[in-house]
Amino acid sequence: MLGGMSWESSAQYYRIANELVRDRLGGLHSARCVLMSVDFAEVEILQSGARWDEAGALLARAATQLEAAGADFILLCTNTMHKIAPQVEAAITVPLLHLADATAAAIRTARLDTVGLLGTAFTMEQDFYRGRLASHGLTVLVPEADDRATVHAVIYDELCRGIVSEGSRAAYRGVISRLASAGAQGVVLGCTEIELLITQDDSPIPVFPTTRLHVEAAVDRALAQV
């Protein structure tokens, strides 16, 4: 697991992985994993400065350390930083389990073809993530500009700092309702922190929690190799 972006959601990765392994194998079983956690402050500076090549180099170095530590495959525990997933993949010889692929598989299993996407401004407005979902035959809708700004601000100003606000939950509910009115059959919680704020109870349409879906795909793959 290549995490720390933010550690608030990476902690959920670790928790969910261990819970799933325990539930599937029983007894005192837990997940065999290696976690590399970077300093998100350093990554955020590179994000905001559009210094993506430098961010990719930083995460590629971390990924090689995970491989050297014995990882059979790697999870990049952040939707936004899948922008530089090709740079990470080029640095390692083990597979990178792409978060958008795991999410798209779940959407397809649910027999939906049009989804709304919530995430950072980078994820909602650039093509690296929307395009990956679209490559699976999905139509991806994003909120209007004001709603995108709200969603992004809540992630960085609150959720990444461990702040969960009822006001922000209400704001996100409004955004999701507007996406549903625009034709979204489901909504992708396309930032790993959003699951700290939003559950299925907050949405009139199915939600696709990317953290959980990513970990479920990883545990499926790991246990298939046992």
From TrEMBL:
SUPFAM superfamilies of this UniProt entry? Aspartate/glutamate racemase
- Listed name of the protein: Aspartate racemase
Query: Would the keyword Isomerase turn up in this protein's UniProt record?
Result: yes
What is stated as this protein's family in its record?
Belongs to the aspartate/glutamate racemases family.
Q: Which InterPro entries match?
A: Asp/Glu/hydantoin_racemase, Asp/Glu_race, Asp_race
**NCBIfam families, from UniProt?**
asp_race
Read off the Gene3D superfamilies from this record.
Answer: 3.40.50.1860
Sorted alphabetically, the keyword list is:
Isomerase
Organism, by scientific name, is: Amycolatopsis taiwanensis
| Entry GO MF terms | amino-acid racemase activity
- State one Pfam family annotation: Asp_Glu_race
